[in-house]
Amino acid sequence: MILISACLCGVNCKYSGGNNEHREILDLFKNEEVVLVCPEQLGGMETPRLPHEIVGGTGKDVIEHRAKVLSKEGDDSTEKFLKGAYETLNIAKLYNAKVAILKAKSPSCGAGKIYDGTFSSNSINGNGVTAELLIKNGIKVYTEENFKLMR
Fold this sequence. Notes:
The protein has five helices and eight strands. The chain is α/β, with parallel strands linked by helices. It has one domain. It starts with a strand and ends in an 8-residue tail after the last strand. The strands form three sheets. Strands 2-1-5-8 form a four-stranded parallel sheet. The chain has a two-stranded antiparallel ribbon with strand order 3-4. Helix 4 packs parallel to helix 5.
């Protein structure tokens, strides 16, 4: 079983209300057993919503309560991002998923690189909250930028 960010398969759950459909990942969805997830919606965030970034660190720091996830207007959504991460982990465990393909650079799903918290499109090394939690629990996380390495 593979977890996939729902936005990558055309579900309109992106912060803007749109999606990040990726044709090759959508083809994978048609030919493999997958579960679609949107950690932000699972955490109680509305769609559409303001863009959010991790401020003061990475997903690891959010999990360890040393950083926050804030909207572009400064609203604190840290608890919702944490809830969504743990709900996603519960789904992964329920389906015995060992692999996830998540949205690159997202404050939830980014793996390896995320935006730096300044809302200026600058990125830093690190993982989003959900990606970090999944990795800590032994799930291999890819993004649409490197998922071909799975095979």
